[in-house]
Amino acid sequence: MMWSYDWWREALESPHEIGRKLKIHEDEPQPGFYRKRAHKDGPWVPVAIWPTDAGMVATVANRRVDANSTWTFCCEHPVSEEIYRAVAAGGQWPDDPPAIGHNLPKSDDPHEALSAEFLAETELAVTFLRKPIQTKDDADRAAVWSKRLATIAKRATDLHKVEKQPHLDAGRAVDDKWRGLKEDADALSKKLKRHLDDFLREQDRIEQERQRKAREEADKVRREAEAAALKAAEAAAAPGVASNFAEEAAREADRLAEKAADAQRDTEARNSGAGRTGAKVSLRTFVTAEITDYDALVMALKDRPEVREVIQTLANRAAKSGVQVPGMKAVEERRAA
Fold this sequence. Notes:
With about 325 residues, this protein is of the alpha+beta class. Helices cover about 60% and strands about 10% of the residues. Among the domains are: about 5-90, no CATH class; about 290-325.
């Protein structure tokens, strides 16, 4: 069979035709130069396929391999012969960010090693970001770099999980050990307080009634004291009134004034509670809202930041689901991902 490099050349010129006009057959590798991943999410390695009298042969990273088993992994990634030979000789792929591995300090600490790798990537990436992307190679390099940094983030996440897991397990064990005792004791404590509610409410009702009567009595005594004080003042000022009568009126006024003060003190609230110091339980006022007009309340709260945040979250969810909701529209933005 006569073989040519036409398929590879056309694939280089029109990669979008691979699998369409340029058909792919597992048992028909096409001569040319390609690349494939060394493993899942691994680095690119150069692939060469060429015909011999004994059949089609291939090399991957300069190692002889079976052409048929390699073909479907590399067929969608043709490269020029120039790039292939440069990489096969130890060079770097044009769309790869600068390699940093050989410059990194050695460390047995995964955090230190990964931090050094990230720092090196950051220094190079910051320099790269200072210039706009103007070529396909630059665009490919940015995409590969983004993937490389995402891989660092994933490795950091995995290492963080591994290091933290024993602590999480230990924490859960402690939580499990104490949870029942904490929650059951708290629940029984609250149950006892609820058991007190009716009694304390009745005591509070009695106290409110006592205060009402005390206020009535205080008002009555205050009026009597005011009348006595007025009478004493008139007696003291009136000519011809015996001094002993004026003194008696003054003493009566003082007595009623003191009685009025005592009556006023009796109007003060007395705590209705149970228990003793350090274990007192009494009625407390807890305020919650009862919504009587939902629409009016929404209008009153609509400009609060937390309400807007919740509404934005719900609107985003509706937009992503394709649900049309009055008052919003779905906005599409195309960005690198």
